[in-house]
Amino acid sequence: MASLLIFVFVNILLAQGEIILTNYSAGLKNSPLFSIVRNSGSKSLYVGGRNVLLQLDSDLNLIASVTKGPKRYAFSCEPESDCPNGSLQPNDIKVLGISERKDKLLACGTANQGLCTLHSFTNISNFVRVGGTKTGYLVGSKESAIMVNSKTSDNGSIDFLYVFHQYDERNHAFSPPAMSLRQLVRDQQSFTMDYVHEVNHISTISALGISDSYFMSFVGYFKHKNYLYIVTNQHMSTKQDTIFRPRIGRICYGPSRDTLFHTYIEIELQCKSEDWLYDKVTTISFDGEKLYIAAVMLQPGTASTANTSRGSALCSAYLTNIDKFFRQAVYACFNQQPDAQLLPWTIRDRKCEKALLDSHGLNWDELCYLRRNDGIQGLKPLPMDLITTIDSQVTVIRANGNNALTVGDEDGYIRKVTEKEYLKFQLSKFPIGPQMEVDEDGNEFILAGDQVFKVPRSCMFYTDCGSCVSSEDPLVCGWCQTTKQCTMETECTNWTRDICQPVIEKVSPEAGPLEGGTTLQIYSKMFAKELPEDDLQIKVGDIQCKLFNQGMFRVTCITPPGKGNQPIKMRMTDSDSYKIRPYKISGETEYHLPFQYKNPQVTKFEPTRGPQAGGTIITIEGKNLDIGSHVKVTAAGIDCELYPRRTTNNITCITKEWDAKLGRKKRVASRARGSGSIEITIDSVVRSSNEKFFFLPDPHVKSISPGRSIVSGGIPITVQGTNLDASVSPLMSATHGNNDLNLTTECVVKPGGEEMVCPSLNVAGKIEVKQYETVHVYFLFDNNKIPADHRKSENSFPFLMELNLKIEQQKPEISPVEVEAKHSH
Hints:
Elements: E1 6-13, E2 18-25, E3 33-38, E4 45-49, E5 52-56, E6 62-67, E7 71-73, E8 87-89, E9 95-99, E10 104-108, E11 116-120, E12 127-131, E13 145-149, E14 158-165, E15 179-187, E16 190-195, H1 196-199, E17 207-208, E18 216-224, E19 227-237, E20 240-252, E21 265-273, E22 276-278, E23 280-286, E24 290-296, E25 312-318, H2 319-334, E26 340-342, H3 364-367, E27 376-378, E28 382-383, E29 385-390, E30 394-399, E31 405-409, E32 413-417, E33 421-426, E34 432-438, E35 444-448, E36 451-455, H4 465-469, E37 477-480, E38 485-488, E39 495-496, E40 499-500, E41 506-508, E42 511-513, E43 519-523, E44 536-540, E45 543-544, E46 546-551, E47 554-558, E48 565-566, E49 568-574, E50 584-590, E51 595-598, E52 601-606, E53 609-611, E54 617-623, E55 631-635, E56 638-642, E57 650-655, E58 674-682, E59 685-696, E60 700-705, E61 708-710, E62 716-722, E63 731-736, E64 739-740, E65 745-746, E66 748-749, E67 755-759, E68 772-781, E69 784-786, E70 798-802, E71 817-818
Parallel strand pairs: 12-16, 21-27, 21-28, 40-50, 42-51, 53-59, 61-70
Antiparallel strand pairs: 1-2, 2-36, 3-4, 4-5, 5-6, 7-8, 9-10, 10-11, 11-12, 13-14, 14-15, 15-16, 15-17, 18-19, 19-20, 20-21, 21-22, 23-24, 24-25, 25-29, 26-27, 30-31, 31-32, 32-33, 34-35, 35-36, 37-38, 37-39, 41-43, 43-47, 44-45, 44-49, 46-47, 48-51, 49-50, 52-54, 54-57, 55-56, 55-58, 56-57, ...
């Protein structure tokens, strides 16, 4: 109902900033929206979605809505049946048509075998169901379907409709032909739709039928002069059921010219990028001179699964060239040449008949009345011109004239393209819908998920001066210095395309110490060359930030001392323009975030000791530890290598090996090789801890006892040696053969560092133990392995794992293992 439908403004985030677009949301239960048409007289928009039909005004205000589903459905159910044995399925309103003759909207869904309803233009809540006989009133398909209003006839009460319908596995009794001409007739208060041949009692079918096994989907159509063009994806031939090709077909347009599809001709469209053939068309558009298509590459052997790694290709062809290939196909068929044949996919099996036909004097109007060689397929593909490739699957395109295209894709992006892409922004997180409309002012109405967007014909999508004046937009956008917006020249009295004020895009870092000395990096696409000091000045607060490096898109300066939050200001003058920046710079700017002066502090750290070999991970706590451009940490004068991530309260580093030449702090513990405070240097400022860190001699393991354990582990193992307390949390681990068991247990060190106790490892599931199995034990002291090469016999601690739980009864007796381990650092 209308109360559930939401009208909102949506913020669209661009690379340069943010804009606001008018948007209407139908609710996720009605997503996706499939179809949209516009009544140029009333300016109303009609939108078909999942189980809903909407009527909106030109500002996307809701006028009326009609719930169309879900409905019970099965492929075997009669069209007008309630289908009690069917499953509840959505009714997708994919086909909409305008009948100006009847002042009605024709809407066809996927339920009830594709039944249609006729709705009042002024209020779609007033509607009637369209009836008929056999399959002549069924339009919608769960696959693809297209309906085209034909030219008006002399009979003012009849609408002629071309219907293109893809087979969707339904019961044959309810399956219309692939292509047909229908007429919509009003009889008092009811409306009926039937095939033209049935109403006029013509014996020949006014449709082209295809076999169920032949794949044909319908992508889009356009009308030009006296012809109707339809683009399809088909099997390449009736004999090649795993290869598919796009084709364009043409028919003489209008019921007075061809009611029987005699004049239908088709040729293959070939869209290639380098040697890659894009063999499925996803959408088309026509601008009066050129056909534009978007195509994807199919996965081999499939009719619909795209190779996503290749994205989409945009290709074009002049209509004059397309008609030239049609003419060649007709001439080849009438002369029984190999470049043409009669349609192989129709129910009829025929061959081209030879007849006199002058290719140069061929009158296309006369061809519309020929009754020989009807239904021709040209076998010579039409090579199209590649415009560009896009790294996503294109869902909709619209030609805007002057070779400009609006392109929507499955990732929710809208692109503007000429020979190359000149604008891109994400309109929605949902795929862009398969149809769009445009009004007289160039506003585009675009579908995405459950939403309709109104996208104006405007320069507003360029939200800063640089992107505005350097854009290649056909609108010829420039910067309005009065309103500080990107506009067309007619929309502004103080407009320019060759000069901009400077812009700071990014500053790093955003904070530094009170004493200054921070290397401040300022990024802007406006930096194109080194400028003299008079032409480029940067200040933090009111004090100069001393420049020392200028490069492409970035300059660097050293911050002065300061307090609190200070603005970052830049004054710049550059009277030259360049290829990378085709405009001049003059003026001042201020970055949107201030530079923050803060006082870093160290409050504590842990652990307070580690082996002289290094490898101890030290966690330092404090305040404002994430500021500045350059950070260095030392432990007792020895470098401590920083982990990449810093937070405002935490820094982590890992100690390097202690060296007597580097460690100059006074030794304050009897066994310490060296000791001293933790020092953090941020830019030019040093902060120290009150506590000291001690480098202890590397640990030495002499013996372990007992030398055996049960498989499930947990037996206390006594380890003897020296300096075992060099690490706060030593670990025991082991290998079996050449494989590390990747198991550890934490050891507890007794005072003095000469003894520690480690629970034995639980190796259940890691190794198979039948009765006894030997593993080799080693120890980790802050990432230092002791013994370093524990598999060598002279360094080895062999350890026996036993299956029986009562280890005191096991044989043979094993004495404690004593090995003088040779350690390596």
